[in-house]
Every structure is written in C-alpha cells, then in structure tokens.
Amino acid sequence: QKKGSKLKCSNDFETTDGVPFKLMANIEFEAELNNASKSGSQGVGLLRTEGLLFGKRVRNSPDEQQEFYEHIVEGIEGPVTIRLFDIGGDKNARRPHKETNPFLGWRGIRLLLDEKKLLRSQLQAILTVAGKNPGRVKILVPMVSVIDEVREIRNEIEKVQGALLSSGVDIDENIPLGLMVEVPSVALSAYQFAREIDFMSIGSNDLTQYTLAVDRGNDRIHTLFQHYHPSVLKLIKMTVDGAKKADVEVSVCGELAGDEIGAACLFGFGIKELSMVPSSVPKINELLCSKSAEEFIKLADHAIELSSSEELEQLYGEWK
Ligand code: PEP
Ligand code: MG
C-alpha cells in the first residue's frame, strides 16, 4: 500500500481468503491526481480525454496533449489507461449535422475513424509518452460495436508507431490495446472481440443505456436506467466468460464499479479490477476485503437468476 493512502482494512486489496483485487481511479484532469493518490487507488483505470477538446481550457495540439498525458503519468504510480476521445452522444459533439439519435450516431471510435487528423494527433501524443514510460500506458477505445473498428484502430496505431520510430522517437512496442464494452454486440461476441485485443473494460453506464434502450440523460425515464437489471448483469457475465476463453482480462470502469451492490456482484463474476471515482475507493476496498471470494461468487450466481433490480437490492440486504 502506498504512503499517504487512507485505506483502513487490515487486508487491503485482498478478500478475507487472500484473493487480490485492484481498485483504480477514473479521472479527467490533473487536479484530480492528488485525490486519486490519496484514495489509495493503484493507478488510473480510465483517463477521460474529451475535456481537452471542449470547455474553457482547450488543449488539443499534439504538444499540449503530450504535456497533459505526461503530467498524469508522472503524477501517479501504477498503470494509466488513456481512453481515446469519446466525442458525441451527450459529450459536446461539434457536429456539422444535427442527428436525430446522437447516442446511436456519430460518437467515439466511429467519429475518430472519420477524423483521422484528430485521431493521429492523439495517438502521436499518447504513443510518445508511452515510449518514455514503457509498461505504464494502455490505450482504450470507446464505443466499439463491430470488429473492423478494432482492426482499423490497430492499423492506425502501427502507422503512427512506424512514423515515430523513423523520426527517432522511442515507442513501447507492447503497449496494450483495449476496448470498452459499452454496446451489447461486443458483450454477446466477447470471445471474438477479445481474441483481437489485450484487455476489455466494461462501460456499464453506456452498456445499461444500450441494453435497456434508456437515454442515460433523460430525467423522465431515469427510473428505467437500472444498472442492476439482470440483463445488464448477464451481458457482463457473458463478457467475462468470452474474454476468459481468449485469456484476456476484464475490468469495469462504469459507475457500477464504484457502487457497493455492483462491485460485490462484479467481483463475484470474477472481475478483479474495478475503476471508479477516487472517493469511492476506500468504501469498495472495505467491502471487498470484508468477505471471502466464495461469498461474492454466491451472491453473483444468485443475482443473475433474479427478475428485477429491486430483487437484487433485497437480496443484497439479506446477504450483507
Ligand atoms: C461508461 O459508459 O460506463 C463509461 C465509463 O464511459 P462514459 O461514462 O464516459 O460514457
Ligand atoms: Mg461510455
């Protein structure tokens, strides 16, 4: 455990029977680094980067981006998973055409593959920082829905790496490439996707939205946005099973990971890495180090057989 961390369990990052887990931080800005370190998190599991493109302080040139990624990597211990720009949906898309269904439209990887200049400048900045810090940086691709997107992005990464090498810049040849599991098509064919990448990170916020056909930002229907819904849990379990067959690790970086009921079930499904807002790390650590792995597995096995979110809340109350 790191100096200055605020964890209280005697067996931090381990269940009572000694099964280890990792708790990581979701961050977006340098100002959050301090909280991420103090929370006891073991690295950054999700660095959102869209904030570089919008708002008051736009920093989108390759040099500005590189400086930002460097600050983050140097400012915290452990691995840093950098997610490519996830523009679109509710995230300030500067789109030329108004879309009727922006959440089903031009967002994430779909937009990046059409906007090669933007994509390549981000890849150049990330890959340069990764070359200076080998083994520390991972790349995460948002909003994947078909396998060609994965193949195309890998191709782009190889091209940018080739260009860096020929201009004398060091690269991390083994930089891990992962995809976000946010669309049911990826969860349902997890094995086929997992075979082509190095890790998977479940975005439970979008996975819930796309599974239940509920706009995550629409207040009128917010009671239908149920991330404990048994169908969401089943898709998560399918992802874990498919990835396991391909020997690929799965983590979760959506809000479910920082939620007690969610974290207990996710760990029970066999997910050993959870990434969350830094303030949730101590409470989730305390929860996961309070019982044996077997007890979490029992809860998760039962949870997946239920018919509704309410039933899971009730089950959790009795289990806890
Ligand atoms: C998610 O969808 O769960 C996720 C982590 O991504 P974002 O919330 O940034 O869409
Ligand atoms: Mg998302």
From TrEMBL:
Chief localisation class: cytoplasm
Keyword Protein biosynthesis: no
UniProt enzyme class: transferase
Location of the PEP-utilising enzyme C-terminal domain: 13-288
Alphabetic keyword roster: Cytoplasm, Kinase, Magnesium, Metal-binding, Phosphotransferase system, Sugar transport, Transferase, Transport
Subcellular location: Cytoplasm
Family: Belongs to the PEP-utilizing enzyme family.
Role played: General (non sugar-specific) component of the phosphoenolpyruvate-dependent sugar phosphotransferase system (sugar PTS). This major carbohydrate active-transport system catalyzes the phosphorylation of incoming sugar substrates concomitantly with their translocation across the cell membrane. Enzyme I transfers the phosphoryl group from phosphoenolpyruvate (PEP) to the phosphoryl carrier protein (HPr).
Protein name, entry field: Phosphoenolpyruvate-protein phosphotransferase
Organism per entry: Gracilimonas halophila
Residues of the full protein shown: 250 to 569 of 569
